[in-house]
Amino acid sequence: MSDDSNKRNRKKLLRTLFLLLSSLLIVTASASVYNLMYMQAMPISAYGAKVVFYNGADASEAGTSVGTNGTYVKFTSMSGWPNATRVYENATVIKNLDAKSFTCQLSVSSFTGAYIDELYVRLFDNANVYHSTVQVHGTSNSTTFTIGAGEVWRVEWRIKWNANTPAGSTATATLELKVIGEGTGE
Amino acid sequence: MKTKYWNSLLLSILLFVTLSVSVHGNIYNIYYGQASPIMAETPKVILQQGTAGISTIYMNNTSAKVSVSAPVGVAYGHAFKSSNVRVSTTSGSPVDDPEAVLSVTLATDSSIFIIYNAGNRRGSTEDYRGKGCAINVNGVDVAFSWQSPFSSNCANSVTVVYATNLTAGSHVIKGRFFANSAGATVGIDTRQIAAFWFPNVAAYYVRSTTASTTTSGTPVDDPHAILTFTLSSDSVAFIIYNAGNRHGSKEPAKGKGVTINVDGTDIATRQWQSPYGRNYANSVTIVYVCSLGAGSHTVRGRFFSNEAGSTTTIDERQLMVFNFPASLITYGFVQSTTSVSTTSGTPVDDAQADLNVTLARDSDVLMMYIGGNPHGATEDYDGKGIQLQIDGADKSNSASWQSPYGGNYADSATSLWYEQLTAGSHTIKGRFFANYAGYTVTISHRQLVALVFSKPPIYNYVLRIVNQVTDAWKIRLRAYDQSNIERLSNCTIYFYDGGGVSRQIYILNGAYSQQFGNLYDLNSLSTVYIAMTISATANGTSLVYAYLEVLVPGTSTYNLMVITFEIL
Predict the structure, then answer these.
(1) Mean pLDDT over all residues of chain B?
(2) Could you tell me if B372 and B444 are in contact, meaning their C-beta atoms sit under 8 angstroms apart?
(3) Which of B289, B308, B328 is the last residue of a domain?
(4) What does pTM read for this prediction?
(5) Which residues of B touch A85 (CB under 8 A)?
(6) Which pLDDT score, from 0 to 100, does residue A3 have?
(7) In whole angstroms, what is the distance from residue B122 CA to residue B352 CA?
(8) What is the mean pLDDT of residues B351-375?
């Protein structure tokens, strides 16, 4: 083997070694290094709602239907006459079954319909004193209230169709009741 | 170094805030309530035009406006009863005249005057010492008067007057009577009792039981019958002075006379009466109506002895002055000093006691006629009777009779009447007659007054409420807003269905007395009417905004239909 041949081999060896070192560096830089941690919810329990809907005194007129567990209420037979205000003074009630009070927020979730002049949901407290109004069809579409332990609040619906409303017109309104703090301490 | 410190502090704050934000959380449940569908229905109950006033029905027949006019008038209430059923007693203390009981209900606090006039005709059993009469209010005897006749079983009548303020609510007013000599029989053949009340007139009155005497043969002040007051506006004053002595007090056989003094001037007429004998019961009544301008005034009762130098006594007197705003009342009044005589035993006209009144509207009219003669005028000892006549019809139950001490002695009588008269012209006359036909009796002075209180017009009906379905409803009116109702002396809005009536909204004397009514049945496919009565104290425009509540029976679900009442 000539000196030139040895020299060439050494050069190849050095190049290969450089390539190997570079590869090693690349491999080291692209590897994922991490620690594993665990989050566990156990048990996730089901408990009875502490603030619930109940039928009001006008449930039959309003077609009030309270869902299982009292966390949903639907009114299926509300109506009104054009240019007159229909009032369901006691369409449903909100009861606090717990021994502590809760802050609640009643707000409009959705509304569809034309010809409605007024669509108000009004809250009356445990002493049947007016508290506040949610304008389903208006600008004041949310209200916050605190329902005390064991209290019952009355929910009134007021509907006024415009004078030009064709008979048979319909509207739909969905409200959201957020009961804040319910579930803590369970 | 300093920069490094501030950087460290800033980083610490940033870290703290970041941590705080990181740990913020909220736990809540979300429930849903959904109304679907909310339907627009064809109205099941609608409004339709009435026949009175002007009514405008808006689109869909679910709202309306009613426009009516309110004439100006005085707010008032009244009760009246007359009877010719004879009653008698031997009691020396007041007993009820069962034919003279008024049960009244005042909507608001009011000034009230009460007049009770009761007497027996010639020939009825009557003790010569005569009788006393009293007015009783809610169980309390509040005013008295006494009179004695010429002799036993002769004509003898008594008038009592009382004024006071009564609170809103129910009250019982009675006329009562008694024998001036306990154990002796006295009686009443006819009587009239009238009560008129006003929530907003300037009323002044005094009743005193402090004795006053005089020997003067000309009028002197009764020191316990003086009223001084200030009027805020021009008024019509209705004045009654009634004064008398009980049995046993000093009184000449010729009796006493009375008159009224207004602002220092005696009125043109007087009245007189004589008793059975010296120191027997003897009373006199006089009435007067005049205009009084705004400002201060003094009204006095005055009395005198019919026998100058002999003492006459007043044991009790009542003086009242009710001032009605001049622009709000109609009245007729005549007084005269022209003598008229008759021997007729049946009523003949007192030609000097003749009033013609023209009523713009149906009205409640109170009439009072007093006719008498002084000592010395021709008067049969059986005395005279007087009564009222309206449009040619004698009001026999208004009759009153009196006899004097003897022939040609002082003798007067009082007749009282109330009647509802229709709009138009009416003639009211005082009439008189001899208690013993063929013997002359005289009226020398008389006062005849007719106070006219226009009845609030009735708008019957302004709207119809029509139930178009077989469902039954409960309905009521509820006033929710208003403007300029202060001028309304009376505004009553009520339902009726041809049978029952239900007052729904009531404004009295400028304020709500009732803002909503009781629930009223609107039966299947039926109609209920809305009617109104209104009067005002001034011109203007008033608005009452009301909801017609149409309720589903047994629930708190209802419809609100807006009705605007415009009162011009």
Answers:
(1) 95
(2) yes
(3) B328
(4) 0.74
(5) 559-560
(6) 63
(7) 25
(8) 96
